[in-house]
From TrEMBL:
Keywords associated with the record: Membrane, Phosphate transport, Transmembrane, Transmembrane helix, Transport
GO biological process: phosphate ion transmembrane transport
The keyword Cytoplasm appears for this protein: no
Protein name (record): Phosphate transporter
Pfam families: PHO4
Gene Ontology molecular functions: phosphate transmembrane transporter activity
Record's subcellular location: Membrane
PANTHER family: PHOSPHATE TRANSPORTER
Transmembrane regions listed in the UniProt entry: 36-57, 63-85, 97-114, 146-169, 176-198, 204-229, 241-259, 271-288, 309-327, 355-374, 394-413, 419-437, 478-506
Organism: Breoghania corrubedonensis
Cellular component terms (Gene Ontology): membrane
Topology in the lipid bilayer: Multi-pass membrane protein
Amino acid sequence: MTVNDTAPQRRAATKKTSLDKDLNKFMTLEQAGRSVAARLAAPGLALVFLVLAGLYAGLTMGLSSTTLIIVVAAVLGGYMALTIGANDVANNVGPAVGARALTLVGALVIAATFETAGALVAGGDVVATISKGIVDPALVPDSDTFIWAMMAALLSSAMWVHVATWIGAPVSTTHSVVGGVMGAGIAAAGFSAVNWATVGTITASWVISPLLGGVVAAGFLAVIKINIVYQDDKIAAARRWVPLLMAVMAAAFACYLAVKGLKKVWHPDALEIAILGVSVFALTFIATRPWVYYQSEGMENRNQSLRKLFHLPLICSAALLSFAHGANDVANAVGPLAAIVHTVEFGEFSSKVNIPIWIMLIGAVGISLGLFLYGPRLIRMVGQQITKMNPMRAFCVALSAAFTVILASALGLPVSSTHIAVGAVFGVGFFREYYTAHSRRRREYMRKQRKGAADRWDDSLAPHEELQRRKLVRRAHFTTIVAAWVVTVPVAALLSAGIYGVTLLIR
């Protein structure tokens, strides 16, 4: 067969038939459909949860003239729980994920499990209906006004946390609820109903929380760098210091859980908390010394080897922080809901109410579902995008989150756990910037290790360019998050007042 004879056959073989064209079109449509379905899966599951929450509330309370109000309140409480899971839980597991001590899936499973356990086992069975004493209940005119004010507070808080999650800013859900209650209280009973001294105290926590968290985290990172990282014999230094640091972390978390996470099952005084902390410190130090020695045998004398020693503490800290968060912050979602149910049932509102188990279930399941559906974005933000994490830095962030709460409680200072955790991430990043540029110990160590050939200022760059190169905290994320913190209470208050005003028109 000649070349001329085969050419037309080859062209005919490579030419697409009508069937091939149709199949390609179907494949394109199928891929587009899968893409759309993937984007709609999370909102669809969230919607199913809200519908089930409403049905569950209606069936639990039974059919009556007030059932519709309870169903709507349950949907709003479920919505708030979803947004808390999407936004607030990232602070507990983000650093461990960024340090690669946990995979994203592992972090989601651990956080969801311990958030649910904390909410159901140690979640407060009695919560304040007017969050943080912002509004005086005696000045609320009647029960109907109270119910609609609580609904406005729930919806506005959830909407703001939803927006903050969308823009990638971890915010305090407690501050969101405070703003919602304040706005609804002003709309319902006037400015005189608000306890402005309490508002001022909460405002102070915007500054106190991140600063304390950042300073404490930077302090622990300095201890690790000076005493372990920049030592000639890193393994020997780690064997001395890592058990001590792990004991400090264990003691801090024991006290943290006693103060914040076990309020439902235990009410220790200051002496009992101190005894608990000292006992846990001693036991952990004794137990971890042989473990660290065993783990460090055969390790190379380099920083990469040391990081493995911090993986287990990070996993434990992620679990304990999630448990404490579930126990402490589930009330942000279900507190107003419990207040509405109590008022509907008894025709009166109270400053404190019991939370039925069915309401706690809505909060616990909603937080876990919100974490799975929308949490990964904020987890990556906290753990990877603000500043680069490794196990030692993440350890300092987790230790700061527990230690700062204990310190602030002892000093009587108002703090936000969200602001502390994110402030600790900022503190680690800014400390690294400063230490990289100004530490004589670091420069001497690097010169000794690399004979002065590495990690020096690049003379080819202009001073401004060199300064920009050494900024280890992303300023865009920093300004976005700080701005979101500042506007959380006023924005939630304005939204709540507006929503309450709308309810007056439709009632």
